[in-house]
Amino acid sequence: MSAGRSGRPVVVVTRRLPRPVEEQLAREFDARLNADDHPLSAVELADALRAADGLLPTVTDRLTAQVLAVEPLRARILANYGVGFNHIDTVSAKARGLVVTNTPDVLTDDTADDALMLLLMVARRGGEGERHVRSGAWTGWRPTHMLGTRVTGKTLGLIGLGRIGRAVAHRARAGFGMRVIFHDPSPPPAAVVSELGAEPRAGVDDVLREADFVSLHSPATPETRHLIDARRLALMKRGAFLVNNARGDIVDEAALVAALKQGTIAGAGLDVFEREPAVTPDLLTMENVVLLPHLGSATHETRIAMGLRALENLKAFFAGAPPRDRMA
């Protein structure tokens, strides 16, 4: 394995990471850090693949087939900072002999908390109310002011019952007495489902028809792109809310805008967007939508843990051991 001047593998880190992670990376590797935190262009990513033994990218880095076709290719591992890796062309990576890893487990709880925050904010008009107070428009309490929707005891529909979906189900039942229904093409073992008290449904459509709140917890794959489209939004109850902090392109954003304008559904809480960081302009004007800037894993504890998990994968790889979280 090639190495830098220090004799250690060269690792390019594409964005600023929490200080404890960068310090540890610098101790373990010849780490090339991104001091000004600018998003790397396709040219810069290609240069990094030529110059480094390993790349530590994030979800903002588009590692396409074209970028991965770089010659000569020096890098041998893409240690992704995050669970999702749809920004990486894994087929091309595998064809070029690149190992791809991710950082599961460590962000489950915070991302589940984020989903519940979105659900509560959109149901109880939290974002709208906060803006109302800041604008100086609030004139005091009155019985009919800013009435929202009760969460306790309602039916929560989960699309996906992986780690994060299960954590959301647990919080919803234990904290809010919600009835939980779900669809997952690869469900967890029956004992896990039973312990959660979650009720399976045969398809996505069945969940949408029945739920008062729908929360998306599916990976971004070609099969799940626009999983929630105009047809499926029309199946939801008129008083129902959609929550998405999984991946933006699971939802057809134009269809969602139309459904919100027409009153097909009552509201939406979004932490991810189809063309992130761009947001469909109409969404910015809607009071029945909560918009957050991809905060799912954004706590000090989790962002550090994600970095250390990526570091663990890098250390294993360069020591000649199988990385713990190999995805491709």
What is the string of SSEs from the N terminus onward?
Answer: EHEHEHEHEHHEHEHEHEHEHEHEH
| CATH topology-level fold name of the largest domain | Rossmann fold
Largest sheet: 7 strands, parallel
- Domain count: 2
- CATH H-level name of the largest domain... which superfamily? NAD(P)-binding Rossmann-like Domain
Distance between the amino and carboxyl termini: 20 Å
Looking at the overall shape, the CATH architecture of the largest domain is 3-Layer(aba) Sandwich
| Shape field | globular
CATH class label of the largest domain: Alpha Beta
Helix content: 25-40%
Overall residue-averaged pLDDT value: 96
Q: Total number of helical segments?
A: 13
The number of E-state strands comes to 12
Structural class: alpha/beta
Into which percentage range does the β-strand content fall? 5-15%
- Poorly predicted runs: none
Radius of gyration: 22 Å
Strand order of the largest sheet: 8-7-6-9-10-11-12
Write a brief caption for the model.
The protein is α/β, with parallel strands linked by helices. It has 13 helices and twelve strands. The model has no long low-confidence stretch (mean pLDDT 96).
Commentary on this structure:
The protein has 328 residues and is α/β, with parallel strands linked by helices. It folds into two domains: 10-106 and 300-318, 3-Layer(aba) Sandwich (Rossmann fold); 108-291, NAD(P)-binding Rossmann-like Domain (Rossmann fold). The chain has 13 helices and twelve strands. The chain has helices at residues 19-28, 42-51, 65-68, 90-95, 108-123, 126-134, 163-176, 190-196, 204-210, 230-233, 253-262, 281-284, 300-318, and strands at 10-13, 30-32, 54-56, 77-79, 99-101, 155-159, 179-183, 198-200, 213-216, 241-244, 267-270, 289-291. The strands form two sheets. Strands 8-7-6-9-10-11-12 form a seven-stranded parallel beta sheet, sandwiched between helices. Helix 1 (19-28) packs parallel to helix 13 (300-318). The model has no long low-confidence stretch (mean pLDDT 96).
